[in-house]
Design brief:
202 residues; Maf protein; 7-stranded mixed β-sheet; 7 strands; binds 2'-deoxyinosine 5'-triphosphate; binds magnesium ion; nucleotide metabolism; ribonucleoside triphosphate phosphatase activity; ITP diphosphatase activity; nucleotide binding; nucleotide-binding
């Protein structure tokens, strides 16, 4: 079985591949499809954007699609960069420039006020069915400099107090146990298996 993830972010694709491996499900993405469209993220919430991306690609491809809209919410910045996380420092979508911008905006902010969370909305769109959307979060703090080389995006500046390391210091397997994406995907799996049980009722 194959599932299409409506994303062009290689970091997300690798995490989904790893998280679906145990189910024997092969993950493909928009990076495997020639001339796949860029869907504009016009929503104001993660949920809205994930639904827009999933439904746009589902209506073109006519197969079930999962889309991920995710980002970083920093409390001292009133929730920014939020849904603008990917384009925070400009439309060219640079992880390095985005991290630099958050670090400089938080310069001088003391540790107890550097709380933040990663948020992930996953929308599951299917032809002729109602789209289902879930949210997962992961709480942490913003470091004052980068730590670690794993993961992608804002991982090097995101500190996990319980684990006493940054998200970029975790292996892929460790990140996929605790991340916002893993929490959301578990909710989606629960939904899909419940639905399966309903179908199987005599
Ligand atoms: O686990 C994560 N670890 C670190 N950073 C993360 C993570 N998850 C999302 N992020 C950041 C990356 C990007 O700045 C934004 C997502 O933006 P978002 O529009 O959902 O994704 P994207 O434009 O890279 O790819 P696409 O829209 O094709 O799925 O949040
Ligand atoms: Mg995007």
């Amino acid at each position: 079985m194959k599932i299409l993830i409506a994303t062009k972010n290689i970091g997300k694709v690798k995490e989904f591949q790893s998280m679906f491996k145990d189910l024997g499900i092969e993950v493909i993405s928009l990076l495997d499809i020639k001339n796949s469209p860029d869907v504009e993220e016009t929503g104001v919430t993660f949920e809205e954007n994930s639904i827009i991306k999933a439904e746009a690609i589902c209506s073109i491809m006519k197969i079930p699609v999962i889309a991920d809209d995710s980002g970083l919410e920093v409390d001292a910045l009133e929730g920014r960069p939020g849904v603008y996380s990917a384009r925070y420092a400009g439309s060219e979508k640079s992880d390095e420039a985005n991290m630099d911008k958050v670090l400089s905006e938080l310069r001088g902010v003391a540790e107890p006020n550097r709380t933040a969370r990663f948020v992930c909305a996953l929308a599951f769109a299917r032809p002729d069915k109602k789209t289902f959307v879930v949210r997962g979060t992961c709480e942490g703090e913003i470091l004052s400099e980068r730590r670690g080389n794993e993961g992608f995006g804002y991982d090097p500046i995101f500190y996990l107090p319980q684990l006493e390391c940054s998200m970029a210091e975790l292996s892929k397997e460790e990140k996929n146990k605790i991340s916002h994406r893993a929490v959301a995907l578990q909710k989606l799996k629960d939904f899909i298996s419940k639905e399966d049980m309903l179908w199987q009722k005599p």
